[in-house]
Amino acid sequence: MVISGGDGHSGGDSTDDLAETPPSEIVCVDCGGPAHLLTPPPEDGRWLVGDVVAYRCRDCRDRWDMELAAREQG
């Protein structure tokens, strides 16, 4: 994932446009506390490259917006 001010979907329907599923919790960059996912999953359940998700830190209350990256090929 990349911290970004992205503008949402990339617009495609190909499997190349599928993003990693965002974790339900990340570590806050500022204080090290747990930050929980605020953004609900898409109705179709498919996260796309360029989707922006938001997290809120439980401890310092900072909000983090992250742009989803492509799935790793493996």
Write up this protein.
With about 70 residues, the protein is mainly beta. The protein has one domain (about 1-74). About 0% of the residues lie in helices and about 25% in strands. The protein contains no helices and five strands. The protein has strands spanning about 1-5, 25, 35, 50-55, 65. The chain has a five-stranded antiparallel β-sheet with strand order 1-5-4-3-2, with no helix packed on it. β2 and β3 (about 35) form a beta hairpin. The chain starts with a strand and ends in a 7-residue tail after the last strand.
Write the layout of secondary structure elements.
Layout: E1 2-3, E2 25-27, E3 34-37, E4 52-57, E5 63-67
Antiparallel strand pairs: 1-5, 2-3, 3-4, 4-5
Quick structural overview:
This protein has 74 residues and is mainly beta. It has strands spanning 2-3, 25-27, 34-37, 52-57, 63-67.
Strand order of the largest sheet: 1-5-4-3-2
Low-confidence stretches: 1-10
User: What's the shape?
Assistant: elongated
User: Total domains, how many?
Assistant: 1
Could you describe the largest sheet, including whether it forms a barrel? 5 strands, antiparallel
Q: Helix proportion of residues, in percent?
A: under 10%
